[in-house]
Amino acid sequence: MEPLTSKKKVLEQKPLTFAERMYLPAIAKGLSVTISHLFKKEATIRYPEVEREFSTNFRGMHSLKRDEEGRERCTACGLCALSCPAEAITMIAAERKPEEKELYREEKYAAVYEINMLRCIFCGLCEEACPKEAIYLDGPIVPADYLRKDFIYGKDKLVEQPLNK
Amino acid sequence: MDIAFVIEKFVLVAIIFGISLLIAMYSTYAERKVAAFLQDRLGPDRAGPFGILQPLADGVKMFMKEEIIPSNASKWLFMVGPGLAMLTACIGTAVIPWGSDITIGDRVIPLQVTDINVGILYIFGVVSLGVYGVMIGGWASNNKYSLLSAIRAASQNISYEIAMGLSIIALLLVTGTMSLKEIVEQQHGWHWNVLYQPLGFLIFMICAFAETNRAPFDLPECETELIGGYHTEYSSMKLGFYLFAEYINMFVSSAVMATLYFGGYNYPGMDWVLLHTGPIIGPLIGTFVFFIKIFAFIFFFMWVRWTIPRFRYDQLMHLGWKGLIPLAIANIIITGIVIAIIEKF
Fold it and tell me: Sign of the C-alpha dihedral, residues B169, B173, B174, B176?
């Protein structure tokens, strides 16, 4: 094959000197390198007791936001589901009844809002698509679980806690 | 033979057996911890505080695993293999002097199961028997990888036993006895044999690494070439026995190295300590020192494992036959000449 570059470095392999053939100096050197690591700080973080510090724009679990009066912002327009490249979001919209005015901000709301956390790729496109600033990926890492069905998060897990509680 | 003697020996055997099993158990834990610390990790820390119950968890796991015997295996030999490996690993501890004699009343209790006058030869015999466990297991598995591994183990052990034996001959020239008890007594205080036989010790230690199939000489179980080596077909506690035997071997060879070259239970200033602590506590302090030396060697075994990559097979043979054996012979000649000169003048 033709060389791809004009750069060329000839590697010279000298025969080992006597000291090198003894192996022992090299072994001692290697042992000193490994023992020095005994006194270094370990890189391990004891998750879940200790959590790594994330940057401020880290995208974790989703949360559905409430407005300043504690009403759910989501109006079930479906833009987040439409923008989702992994098709992780599904929702069923419902019409707000007059007595539910304190609960939902707009006349239409999401009766069911589900995110499949196994499908989600945490790209943040739903956050960008939302016209009502209702969904943000500002939570922690999604915890592990045993069954697939337990990874489909409903409104019980996603909606933010009410302000006054 | 009185009853007290039998009881005394029986208790001693039970204690030594228990201790060697305990140390082997916690060597597996220590190995993982040392590996972790040398690689800037934490190691097992989930089972109990600092993961101290990890060996128990591993043991339970081993017992719970399904017992599989390959249909084409030689069934009886397949079962004998791990037992033999375990047995030969354990009986090596019988001749090692664990401490100086304890005196209770007018009864002298030696902290050694038996002081045979060919102690070193006994150790050699047991160590060379150790390869039979590996060989039988590897052959009986009826698996080409296991068989290759068994052949490797056998040829490696035979090659390195020669250099080991030759390095011991030089030591015997210095000590003039084969009884391990007498060899230890000669090293009283600071007169450790490693000061007189540094080269012999080096050769002996390298051979001990090879005999115990530890890295960098762990070719019989090298995963990249032989899957699991001789224990590829083994499962459950039979596999556990093989792994366990390796750690007991490590413990025994550490003890032998400490006995032959590092003064056993001797330490500088031991006379003063013995005088001030009495005939029971004093020897036990010696035993404690001996165990510290053993642990240092075990740590060294692990430290080397996580430092040096595995030898290639031809390099292994090259080192054994062309490196260590001539070196050991030269060591004998030099030692002999020096002793002859000293005796002449």
Answer: positive
Reply yes or no on whether the pLDDT at A165 is more than 60: no
Q: Give the burial string for A49-84 (b: 16+ CB within 10 Å, else e).
A: eeeeeeeeeebebbbbbbeeeebbbbbbbebbbebb
What letter would DSSP give residue A123? -
Residues B221-266: tens digit of each pLDDT: 777 778 877 888 888 888 888 888 888 888 888 988 888 888 878 8
Nearest-CA neighbor of B319 among B173, B240, B206, B199? B206
Query: How far, in whole angstroms, is CA B252 from its chain's centroid?
Result: 3
Paired with A78 in beta bridges are none
When pLDDT is averaged across residues B119-146 and rounded to a whole number, the result is 85
Phi, psi of A112, deg, nearest 5: -125, 130
Length of chain A: 165
Cα–Cα distance between B282 and B99 in angstroms, integer? 10
Q: How far apart, in whole angstroms, are the C-alpha atoms of residue A126 and residue A82?
A: 8
CA distances from B86 to A73, B81, B91, B221 (A): 69, 9, 9, 17
- Tell me the whole-structure pTM to 2 decimals: 0.80
Determine the Cα–Cα distance for residues B193 and B174; give it in Å rounded to an integer: 8
Tokens matching residue B246: 């390796």
Put simply, the answer to whether B37 touches A30 (Cβ < 8 Å) is no
- Looking at CA atoms only, how far is residue B345 from chain A in angstroms? 35
**Which residues sit opposite A135 in a β-bridge?**
A64
Mean pLDDT of B1-5: 78
Give residue for tokens 């030089």.
B170
Residues 6+ apart with CB under 8 A from B182: B175
Which among A42, A46, A50 is the top mutation candidate for probing chain B, defined by the most B β-carbons within 10 Å of its own β-carbon? A42
Q: Which residues of B touch A40 (CB under 8 A)?
A: 40
Asked whether this complex has an ipTM greater than 0.85, the answer is: no
CA distance B163 to B199: 12
3-state secondary structure of B153: helix
